[in-house]
């Protein structure tokens, strides 16, 4: 055309710089644009328009994540999450385990190796109870510990009226509250300080007016003395 002897070449060269038809662009070109509307794809080369709200515009205008969190009022949530317990710690990161177990009403296995009193000197029952209180034993419905296996580091209770209790290796259980307590002590198979072995001592105190005191249970390793079996009575009758 136009007497261009190289018309075909001219047209080929002209079209070479043009973008071929594109399905994605065609989909976008078919949208009826308007204020506060932005395009998105609902499928392969299928476009639609969504409404951009003021909240959306405000968020897009923020330059940092912190600014977005502040705008959404989530800072307190972030602060709480930063101090939350971590699942993979399995409770190891609980800051106050004693208070935690108290609040949920759980029993407290305090220690499997504990120096009870710190030396081998004698104790009264009152001193023993005072020590238990200092360890938080009365904060729980049930509390227990085991004395360390070291005679030099554990006290000996001498005022039970039914035998000495060496607390080395002994299992101590506390049930109840400071005002109404039951304490059970199970002694090991060997002892020091004149402690009774293979025994279970129980102390019950529901108040001074209710006959507080110790008792000792007998068993196959710690049998009743002859007089308790009535043998003395038989001798007296002879």
TrEMBL record:
Extract the InterPro entries matched here: Phage_Tail_Fiber_Structural
Top-rank lineage group of the source organism:
Bacteria
Q: What is this protein called?
A: Side tail fiber protein from lambdoid prophage
């Amino acid at each position: 055309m136009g007497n261009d002897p190289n018309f075909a070449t001219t047209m080929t060269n002209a079209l070479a710089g043009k973008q071929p038809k594109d399905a994605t662009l065609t989909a976008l070109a078919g949208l009826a644009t308007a204020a506060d509307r932005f395009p998105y794809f609902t499928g392969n080369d299928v476009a639609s328009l969504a409404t951009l709200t003021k909240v959306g515009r405000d968020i897009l205008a923020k330059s940092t994540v912190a600014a977005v969190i502040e705008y959404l009022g989530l800072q307190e949530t972030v602060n709480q999450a930063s101090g939350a317990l971590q699942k993979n710690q399995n409770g190891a990161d609980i800051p106050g385990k004693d208070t935690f177990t108290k609040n949920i009403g759980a029993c407290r296995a305090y220690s499997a190796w504990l120096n009870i009193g710190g030396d081998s000197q004698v104790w009264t029952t009152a001193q023993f109870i005072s020590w238990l209180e200092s360890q938080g034993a009365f904060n729980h419905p049930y509390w227990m510990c085991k004395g360390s296996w070291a005679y030099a580091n554990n006290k000996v209770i001498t005022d039970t009226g039914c035998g000495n209790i060496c607390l080395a290796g002994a299992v101590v259980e506390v049930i109840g509250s400071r005002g109404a307590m039951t304490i059970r002590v199970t002694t090991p198979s060997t002892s020091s300080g004149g402690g009774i072995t293979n025994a279970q001592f129980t102390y019950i105190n529901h108040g001074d007016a209710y006959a507080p005191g110790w008792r000792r249970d007998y068993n196959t390793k710690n049998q009743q003395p002859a007089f308790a079996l009535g043998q003395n009575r038989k001798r007296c009758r002879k």
